[in-house]
């Protein structure tokens, strides 16, 4: 079970309500883990500020951070925090929401994320595309190729999906 978003709809980013509801929700999830009704709990779209605040106030660490990752947007600070804290990173919008993608490029993008060690969550409606995407597990890139894709992102910082960074509290 994941908390989808670090903020509450209908309140300005500066409101204290985001932090209090976020921590309250986490405590409720922790209770379910202790009672055995949830096996693993995690968060999505949390920035480094949200993650460190959660770590300072939780008894059970998140198992996973689900976050937008592709070569145009690599949230390095959050990825480093997850590595240091043994939290699984799960990438979404790995295909840039599918904009102008060919088969080869889709598989390369999925292989790139997998070779970084992130869990990848591609979305596809047709069985054919699901098969194509699944076959990316057989695509291995060289370390030079992975680094070349890493370099595409530098300075670009382009997100396809939403941006949680204005909720700083
Ligand atoms: N936690 C969050 O806030 C959050 C935010 C966004 C997304 N997500 C989740 O992440 C997953 C991925 O979401 P996403 O839609 O953002 O991104 P995505 O996986 O980057 O892109 C999905 C798009 O790519 C197309 N596509 C899939 N495979 C393809 C292929 N082999 N060749 C060409 N196009 C291909 C799909 O088309 P068709 O569907 O037409 O096949 C769809 O339009 C979803 O499960 C979503 O629920 C989570």
The span between the termini is: 23 Å
Number of strands: 5
Distinct ligands: NADP nicotinamide-adenine-dinucleotide phosphate
Query: Biggest sheet, open or closed, and with what strands and sense?
Result: 5 strands, parallel
| Residues in β-strands, percent | 5-15%
Helix content: 40-55%
Question: Mean pLDDT, rounded to whole units?
Answer: 93
**What general form does the structure show?**
globular
- Please work out how many helical segments DSSP would assign: 6
Q: From the helix content, strand content and strand pairing, which structural class follows?
A: alpha/beta
Order of helices and strands: EHEHEHEHEHH
Uncertain stretches of 5 or more adjacent residues = none
| Biggest β-sheet: strands ordered side by side in the sheet | 1-2-3-4-5
Q: Radius of gyration in whole Å, from Cα? A: 17 Å
């Amino acid at each position: 079970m994941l908390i989808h978003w670090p903020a509450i709809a209908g309140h300005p980013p500066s409101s204290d309500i985001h932090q209090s509801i976020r921590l309250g929700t986490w405590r409720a999830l922790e209770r379910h883990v202790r009672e055995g009704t949830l096996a693993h709990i995690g968060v999505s779209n949390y920035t480094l500020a949200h993650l460190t605040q959660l770590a300072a106030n939780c008894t059970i660490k998140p198992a996973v951070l689900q976050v937008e990752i592709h070569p145009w947007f690599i949230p390095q600070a959050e990825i480093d925090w997850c590595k240091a804290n043994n939290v699984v990173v799960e990438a979404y919008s790995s295909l840039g929401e599918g904009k102008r993608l060919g088969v080869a490029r889709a598989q390369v993008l999925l292989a790139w994320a997998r070779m970084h060690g992130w869990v990848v969550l591609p979305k596809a409606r047709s069985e054919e595309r699901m098969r194509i995407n699944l076959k990316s597990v057989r695509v291995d890139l060289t370390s030079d190729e992975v680094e070349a894709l890493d370099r595409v992102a530098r300075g670009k910082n382009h997100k396809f999906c939403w941006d949680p960074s204005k909720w700083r509290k």
